[in-house]
Structure formats: structure tokens, C-alpha cells
Write a structure and sequence with these properties.
Layout (H helix, E strand, L loop, with lengths): L12 H27 L9 H14 L5
Protein name: CbtB-domain containing protein
Keywords: Membrane, Transmembrane, Transmembrane helix
Pfam families: CbtB
Length: 67
């Protein structure tokens, strides 16, 4: 009986690298979002008070102390 074995890997190196970059980009985006909501206090807001108040309300919804 001869068994056929393939020497191809289950995941290609290019696929692994792409997955790694996608995970890193997602983590970076979540870190930026956490900064804007929890720690920014409106300092990045260039469009007036609307963005500040939106983030302020988001902090209240998440239970982050901001006063």
C-alpha cells in the first residue's frame, strides 16, 4: 500500500503574515479607540464641541470616570 503524502503546508507564509498584520491593525485601532473614548477628554476634537460631547457621553455609557 502506498500512501500519498503532500508536502504542502496547511497555511502559507504569506497568509500567516497577512493574518498577523490584520491582527496588529485591529489591536492598534482598538487601542486608538480606547484612547479617544477614555483618555482624550476632547483634546483631539477639531470639529468643535460635538465630538467632545459624543466622546463624553460614550465615557458615561462605558462607566469611565471623567469628572
Amino acid at each position: 500500500m502506498s500512501s500519498s503524502t503532500s508536502s504542502q503546508p496547511l497555511v502559507s507564509p504569506a497568509g500567516t503574515a497577512r493574518l498577523l498584520w490584520m491582527v496588529l491593525a485591529t489591536v492598534a485601532a482598538l487601542a486608538l479607540l480606547a484612547y479617544l473614548v477614555a483618555f482624550d477628554q476632547g483634546a483631539v476634537s477639531r470639529s468643535g464641541m460635538f465630538l467632545h460631547e459624543l466622546m463624553h457621553d460614550g465615557r458615561h455609557l462605558l462607566g469611565v470616570p471623567c469628572h
